[in-house]
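I'll show a typical protein example:
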Amino acid sequence: MDALKIALQILLGITSLLLTLLILLHKGRGGGMSDMFGGGMSSSLGSSGVAERNLNRFTVILGLTWGAVIVALGVILRFSGES
């Protein structure tokens, strides 16, 4: 059980770093604080390129994996009797 817990913790660290990098690679959509005060021109175009659509897919899949790893670690820690 300890090997599984260690493997999931390593997987959580890797997915956390990759998810952060993938989120930072996305193009800004506008609508933030700068737009409230008149700064910036934002376009309402959706994902147009194949690369951006693939980036969206990878981000969603990695996000779901990240969530599943967190749930699995929570279940293991809950039922293993450790704190």
